[in-house]
Amino acid sequence: MSKMSVTLAGVELKNPVMTASGTFGSGVEYSEFVDLNLLGAVVTKGVANVPWTGNPTPRVAETASGMLNAIGLQNPGIDVFCERDIPFLKQFDTKIIVNVCGKTTEDYCEVVERLANEPVDMLEINVSCPNVKEGGIAFGQQPKALEEITREVKKYARQPIIMKLSPNVTDITEMARAAEAGGADVLSLINTLTGMKIDIKRRVFALANKTGGMSGPAVKPVAVRMVYQVANAVSLPIIGMGGIATAEDALEFIMAGATAVSVGTANFFNPYATRDVVRGMEKFLENEKVADINELIGIVK
Ligand SMILES: Cc1cc2nc3c(=O)[nH]c(=O)nc-3n(C[C@H](O)[C@H](O)[C@H](O)COP(=O)(O)O)c2cc1C
Q1: Measured between alpha carbons, how far is 178 from 151 in angstroms, rounded to an integer?
Q2: Is the pLDDT of residue 36 over 80?
Q3: What range does the domain containing 110 cover?
């Protein structure tokens, strides 16, 4: 069998396939469909220092080949997360990546410090959520702010830090360089693209928040382009995501320069999507006689 393992900042994953934050919870519901032992890593829903109630409903809407969401990072807070979700995930032979959200630099640092002694493998810092009014995206759209928050978070972190980039910027490479300058270990991209949908019969916005983050197969070409640009701008490893639903989708990201990939919205229309992507990639390597997935990373120049 071909080698599927990849390494991100010294952390070895059995394969490059992980879940995208916010689309898989902490794996409890999905574990009825997918054996979590099959996955390279589970990336949890964003967790803050205190519980957040999220935005008013409606918070999701379907779009052509995708969806809009404005959940607003509803989460139970770090205390409940550590007591309930980490022990659940520790039962499985997969890496645990905790997605961290906050409104201020101090909020982020508090969660990162709290996780320093927890048995989790990496932390993904979400500075790119378009649905939270204060903080969040502000850090993800200004290079100086991104560099500074990366540097601050690194002071408190015991685990490697993944900075998650927003596609809602003029030049994604400028943001990638800022995160690298701040000391990021890994970059992940893309978060959702800001969008809007209008209910013409009721003459209202489809989402109570008016705007939401667009995700799903429709965003994939944008995401592949950005992964390619970032891979050529920095020397950090990349986790690619945005519209991945099949092994073929995932392989596009790998060939564009991603070391690992996350499956997000596809989990909603196919709860077996992560497993299908792992199996499909294994099959592709075998059929194409590729001995090691690492040979394909960034192969398209
Ligand atoms: C319902 C929903 C909730 C999400 N919540 C988070 C989150 O908590 N933290 C985060 O960094 N990204 C979050 N995201 C963004 C995804 O992790 C991912 O970056 C994005 O959806 C693109 O991938 P996809 O097209 O495969 O879904 C969320 C996406 C969706 C659809």
Answers
A1: 10
A2: yes
A3: 6-296
Q: What amino acid occupies position 198?
A: I
> Quick one: tokens of 158?
């015991």
Q: Residues of the chain with pLDDT > 90: what percent?
A: 94
In a domain, 126, yes or no: yes
- Contact, 165 vs 184, CB < 8 A? no
- Cα 108 from chain centroid? 16
pLDDT at 135 exceeding the cut of 60:
no
CA-73 nearest atom, ligand 1: 8
- Does the annotation count 129 as an active-site position? yes
Domain membership of residue 1 (yes or no) is: no
CATH code where residue 145 lies: 3.20.20.70
301 within some domain: no
pTM above 0.90, yes or no: yes
CA distance 215 to 103: 23
The torsion angles phi and psi of 75, rounded to 5 degrees, stand at -160, 160
pLDDT in tens, 275-298: 999 999 999 999 999 999 999 999
For 51-62, how does the pLDDT look when each residue is reduced to its tens digit (9 = 90+)?
A: 999 999 999 999
The answer to whether the peptide bond before residue 58 is cis (omega within 30 degrees of 0) is yes
In this structure, is residue 248 part of a structural domain? Answer: yes
- Cα(12) to ligand 1 centroid in Å equals 23
Total of domains in the chain: 1
Collapsed DSSP state (helix, strand, coil) of residue 274: helix
**pLDDT of 235 strictly over 70:** yes
- Mean of the pLDDT values across residues 36-53? 96
- Pocket lined around ligand 1, Cβ cut-off 6 Å: 20-23, 45-46, 69, 71, 73, 99, 126, 129, 164, 191-192, 215-216, 219, 241-244, 264-265
